Amino acid sequence: MADPFEVRMRFTSQLQHLNASVNSSQKAAHYALKYRDMDEDLHSCILEQLERNSMNNRANIMYFIEHLCDMAQRENHMNFVRMMQKDILMVVDAVAPSDGSGAANVKVVRRVLQGLQQKKILQTDTVIEIEGCLKERDTVAEHPALSPIDANRQREQHANHPAANKTNGVSRPDKRQIEQRIEEDRERHKRLRESIWAIGDEGDQEFERLWDEVSDIGEDDYIAAEEDAMERKQALEVE
To answer: CB–CB of 49/16 below 8 Å?
Structure first.
């Protein structure tokens, strides 16, 4: 039997090093399901890391939660799903706090909630209730902590006034965190576009869909075809 302390430490490390790639989330989810007999302890790790990590990492953990619940549901290990259902409000408050510090994560929360709803993991009423709270937190454009600021000016303010890196008590993300978030969001948008254009190996399903979207042939279509044929014939005679 694996050492519970070692399992917890490795899982914690995986959560801390999550990134925008699907592989990192799937790897952590596989690890959690491998040690499903410690599910309550691993669930507490997730909540703990949501409280301790940066807003960027909390967004990554939010995406991981969707992978974990989806995989747990498919493998019929519903304990992870039930615990997440019970603590979903706590998770949302950690990823997008009401103080505005996680305003940039509101869209992340919405996407994951929609995914969990589509997978029947969360009820529609629960998602609607949470959405009501998120509307008050979706203030990215107006939030002072996310507004542009000159790097030299920021260092000078921090040197002269240690509390200057906070606005209304909310920590301003540093340059490295902003750059990391931009890169991770770019990677997620790239994957989203790929999934939109992906065509599954389901025989003639794509052909059937396009065929259904085409209108029936009418008299106007025959007239247009005859006119096109006449124009091509005249063009060949001129040549």
So the answer is: yes
